[in-house]
Amino acid sequence: MGTTPKPTPGVKDVLVRVEACCLVPNSHNLVTNGGGGMMNLPELPCISGLDVAGVVEEVGDQVFGIKAGDRVYVDPLLTCGTCHHCRQGMSSIAKSRFGH
Fold this sequence. Notes:
3 strands; about 15% helix; about 25% strand
């Protein structure tokens, strides 16, 4: 197990302290049989999940309507729509890269 430094949100980012997260329904199948296609599985052991809920710790200068202390649910299907991956129709890649 390792550690990573606490990220600093960019001007359009929100930093959420995760308090709950669920695994995708087919996690066992993915680990047992591999991701296949475009999905590359991380080296095990790893922690994966989505449907994150938590508390906002910090917001960037250009974030409005959300503030530190707000309880939030992070929608795993929400993308920016403007980064390179989204513009190329590959929003599923963008979704897996918070801070894109």
